[in-house]
Predict the structure.
Amino acid sequence: MSHLLHRRAALGAMQSLLGAGSPALAQARTPAVEPIRLALIESLSGPFANTGEAVHRNLVWAVERVNARGGVRTAGGPRPLELLRFDNKGQTEETLAMLRAAIDNGARVVLQGNSSSAAAALIDTIDKHNARDPQRRVLFLNYSAVDPALTNAGCSYWHFRFDAHADMRMTALMQLLQEDVQLARIYLIGQDYSFGHAVLREARQQLAARRPDVAIVGDELHPVGRVKDFMPYAVKIKASGAQAVLTGNWGNDLTLLVKAARDAGFDGRFYTFYGNALGVPAAIGDAGIGKVVAVADWLPNLPTPESAAFYRAFRQRFPRPQDDYVHLRMQLMIEALAQAIERAGGDDAAMLAQALEQADVTLAGQRGRMRADDHQFQQPLAVGLMERQGAPGVPFDVEGSGYGFRVVRRIDARSAAMPHSCKMARPAH
C-alpha cells in the first residue's frame, strides 16, 4: 500500500538526514525501539498539493530536530518520532479513509490543517473512534484549520489547535485596516466552505463595528480549488470601485486571485490571511508593494536575532527557493508534542491530552501556551506589508521572488486572545 511505502521512505529519509553517528539513528535501527508515529493527513496531490508539501517540509524539519537530540524520553526509554504521509487528495472522504489507515499503521497522533471542513470531520470521527476503541485512541493536532467553531461550539478533548483562528486573524488585520483613512469601499471574497463563510461573516461584523464608514461593494464566495481563471472575479472587483479586497483565500485560490486582479488593472490593497507566501508575492509583483497585507503567527522579517537565525537555519535545510515558507507555529506544535510525550511517559492519547493542556514552549524567541479550557494555542501574531527585498526591515524575501513582508504590527499573545464558548466534555480516564 502507498502509505506503507511513505512510512518506510519517511523513516529512511529521517535516518539518512540524522547521520550515522546520531543516537536517534541507532534507536531507529534497533528493532526493540518502536518509534512514536505521527500521521500527516494532507493534500499531497491535486490543486492544493503545494500547501501539503510545504506543511510536510515544516514537520520533517521539526521531527529531525527532536530526533537529533535523541528523540523523546518515555517510560520505556528514548524513542524517535516517525512522520508518516497520507494523501487525502483535498477530499473530506479521503481524509477519513486516511485516518483509518493511519490508525491501522500504529499512529496515535494525527496532524492536519488545510481545510476546516476536513478538520471538523476528523474531530467528529475521532471522538466516536476514541469512545468505541479506547485501546487505540488518537489525538488530533491542528496547525491550520482556523474555523473558529472548532475550538468553540465544536471543541473536543482530543483536538488541539496551534494556529490563531479566523476571528483572531481578522482582529489583527482590522488594526491596520482601521488606520487606512483613505479606504471608503472594500470587496469581500472567499472560498465557499466553513472557513470562507466564517471569514466573511467576521469581516462584516468587524467592519460594521470598527469602520462603519467603509462600504462593502462586493461580497461573494467561490468554489474551493476548482476555479482555474479568476479573471471574471477580478473584473467585478475592478468594476465595483473597490479600493481594497479582503480575503481568507489560501493556496492557489489566493495566488490565482491576486494574479487576475493584477492583470485586470486593480491597484488597491489586499488584506489577506495568507498573502505572504506560496506564489502570491511573485504573482502580483511590483503592484503589491505597500499594498498586500498579511497576518501570521510569525514572519521571517520579525526584527530579532533569534528569528533571523531560525529562518536562516530553515533555508539552509531547504535551500531551493520553491521550498520556502516556514511556519513557526508548526515547529512549536512539535515541540509541545515532544514536551507532552515526555510528561506523559509515552503516546497514550488520554495521558498526552492531559499533558498537552499544560504545553508551554518557546522557540526562536516566540512563546506559545495551550489554553486548557478550549485547546486553543495562545501566541503572538504579526502583521506584515509587502515590500521589495532590501527595503528597510525586509532582509528576507519570499520564495526567491525579490519581495518580502515588513512587520508593521506585532500583537502579543494576551492581546491576540479572544473569549470562547467551548464546553469541554472530558472523558472518564
